[in-house]
Every structure is written in C-alpha cells, then in structure tokens.
C-alpha cells in the first residue's frame, strides 16, 4: 500500500496538481521514485539489514541513472514505452543522484520509524 501511495504522489509531482512547490521541479518525483526502489528491494528481501537495504537501493537507482547516458536506438525505443520511461527515465542529470539519496534516506528513516513503532 505504501508503494502505491508513493507512486501516486510521484506521478502527481509531475502534473500541475503537484503537492510540491514548482521551484523544486521534477526532483521530488525523482526522490519518490528512489523511495519506490527502496520499497522494491525490501519487498524482495524483507529481512535485509538496513545498511544493505540503503546500499542496494542506491546502487540500483544510480545504475539506472547512469544507464540514461546510453542512448542506443533500441534503448530509446524501449524508453518510448510509458512504463519503461517511468522506470528507466531519459537523460542523465547529476542532480537526480542527490534526489535519490534524499528519497532513499527518507524511505530508510520511515522504515526505521515504522519498526520502532511496531516494537512498542
């Protein structure tokens, strides 16, 4: 459920009814995308240690961002698909890496807070 909420918020951040200030541009959506990466990693490996969770999430997010430097025709054709475009993006932006760090950091703090709340 959280992943669906984060995805919906991320998609909304790319529209005119965004809950984020327009001066932030697309970066809130990028941070939320990275949070979804973290949620996917934890879904695949629920017992993963938090440090590994953050590390793997950053590796995946950074790898996908650097993959945007690869502009082969077949990759561009793949990115023409809306779902593939949402996952793979198009066009490298080094500031996206900072947004990914922030998104994964927020996700890790939320995960840690949730675990602490459950232990009470």
N→C terminal distance = 22 Å
SSE order in H/E notation?
A: HHHHHH
Major sheet details: none
Computed over alpha carbons, the radius of gyration is: 15 Å
Low-confidence stretches: none
Task: Tell me the helix content.
Answer: over 70%
Strand content: under 5%
Q: What coarse outline follows from CA principal-axis ratios?
A: globular
Number of strands: 0
Average pLDDT confidence is: 90
Number of domains: 1
- Category from helices, strands and their pairing: mainly alpha
The count of helical stretches stands at: 6
Organism: Comamonas resistens
Protein name: DUF2809 domain-containing protein
Transmembrane segments: 32-48, 55-77, 97-114
Pfam families: DUF2809
């Amino acid at each position: 459920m959280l992943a669906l909420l984060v995805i919906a918020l991320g998609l909304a951040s790319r529209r005119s009814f965004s809950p984020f200030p327009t001066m932030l541009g697309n970066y809130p959506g990028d941070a939320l995308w990275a949070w979804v990466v973290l949620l996917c990693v934890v879904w695949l490996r629920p017992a993963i240690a938090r440090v590994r969770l953050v590390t793997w999430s950053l590796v995946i997010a950074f790898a996908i961002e650097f993959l945007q430097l690869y502009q082969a025709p077949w990759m561009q054709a793949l990115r023409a698909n809306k779902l593939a475009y949402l996952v793979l993006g198009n066009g490298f932006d080094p500031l996206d890496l900072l947004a990914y760090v922030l998104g994964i950091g927020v996700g890790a703090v939320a995960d840690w807070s949730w675990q602490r709340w459950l232990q009470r």
